[in-house]
TrEMBL record:
It comes from the Bacteria. Keywords: Signal. Gene3D superfamilies: Bordetella uptake gene, domain 1, Periplasmic binding protein-like II. The lineage of its organism: Bacteria, Pseudomonadati, Pseudomonadota, Betaproteobacteria, Burkholderiales. Transmembrane segments: none annotated. It comes from Hydrogenophaga crocea. Residues 1-26 form the signal peptide. Coiled coil: none annotated. Belongs to the UPF0065 (bug) family. This is Tripartite tricarboxylate transporter substrate binding protein.
């Protein structure tokens, strides 16, 4: 055997040996419980979606799938946890627009890089935002709200569920489009924000349909419009921002199952298929829709395209707002 031939055979053997662990992992996966890390507390919209997803995925994968809540910093703690985790498919993230697409341009000292350290598995759902006002607000329509805001001559208090959140930038985009100024009031947690809106401490806020529907049906808030392209089946009486004359209010919050970037492709493909199948199965889909979400269940390729489009889009929105989180 010539020297070049020996080198070729030896190199091929080394390459095959190097691939054995990845191949073995793909063939035996999942051999033990999978963890989906969520950056928000139990009973919040991301947690509810994650639990529906985990329950059905466990049935499809025939392996336990647990939800691990790591709240704090608008989902950034959870995102960092998964970005630094072993890329073996056992630690996943329910990523959302705030910590994945908004945080990088908004926070210069972010401890993780979503575009480099995380990869999309499947976008599983979206939740639209409602322009909500206190139940005793004099404003019955978006036009009423805008007219009053312009007449003030100074900034109006606008509640948010945290600096850099979709609701925060939804307010910024709305104010810019309508021609008035806001003073964001950033609440530390969901409960405080809801109380602030109900008590009239702020003129309004963008809240998720998943959170706001119950409050609105209970008469504690009033919804003036939804950011969705069509009316929500949960609140069919609430018009869209498009109907109100603001067609560019596309600030829905998406949720995507994500994994550390170096996770084996075969594992990612399996997870993507089962995640999409999980949210699209009739029983689970019905529960997710009833909770205020719209179901997507995108493929890996479509999720990747979505993420590559969202990174520059939100970078532009953040830059235009002048917001810096640190």
């Amino acid at each position: 055997m010539t020297l070049s031939r020996r080198h070729f055979v030896a190199g091929t053997a080394l390459l095959a040996a190097a691939q054995l662990p990845v191949t073995a992992l793909a063939q035996t996966y999942p051999a033990y419980p999978i963890r989906i890390v969520v950056g928000y507390p139990p009973a919040t919209a991301p947690d509810v979606l994650a639990r529906f997803l985990a329950q059905r995925m466990a049935e499809l994968l025939k392996q336990q799938v647990v939800v691990d809540n790591k709240p704090g910093a608008g989902g950034q703690i959870a995102a960092q946890t998964v970005a630094k985790a072993q890329p073996d498919g056992y630690t996943l993230l329910l990523g959302e627009v705030g910590s994945i697409a908004i945080a990088p341009p908004a926070f210069s000292k972010l401890q993780y890089d979503p575009a480099r350290e995380l990869t999309g598995v499947s976008e599983v759902g979206k939740v639209d935002l409602l322009l909500a006002v206190p139940a005793n607000s004099p404003h019955q329509t978006v036009a009423d709200f805008v007219k009053a805001a312009k007449a003030r001559g100074d900034k109006i208090n606008f509640g948010t569920f945290g600096a850099g959140s979709p609701g925060h930038f939804g307010a910024e985009v709305f104010a810019e489009a309508a021609g008035f100024k806001i003073e964001p009031v950033h609440y530390r947690n969901t409960g405080d924000a809801v109380t602030g809106i109900i008590n009239g401490d702020v003129a309004g806020a963008f809240v998720s349909t998943a959170l706001g529907a119950a409050q609105i049906k209970g008469g504690k808030m009033r919804a003036l419009a939804t950011s969705a392209p069509v009316r929500s089946p949960l609140l069919p009486q609430v018009p869209t921002m498009i109907e109100a004359g603001y067609p560019k209010m596309d600030v829905s919050a998406w949720f995507a199952l994500m994994a550390p970037a170096a996770t084996p492709p075969a594992v990612l493909d399996l997870l993507a298929r089962e995640a999409a199948a999980a949210v699209q199965s009739p029983d689970t889909k019905a529960k997710i829709v009833e909770a205020g979400f719209s179901v997507t269940g995108l493929s890996r390729a479509d999720t990747d395209r979505m993420l590559r489009a969202e990174y520059p889009r939100w970078a532009g929105i953040v830059k235009a707002s002048g917001f810096r989180g640190d």
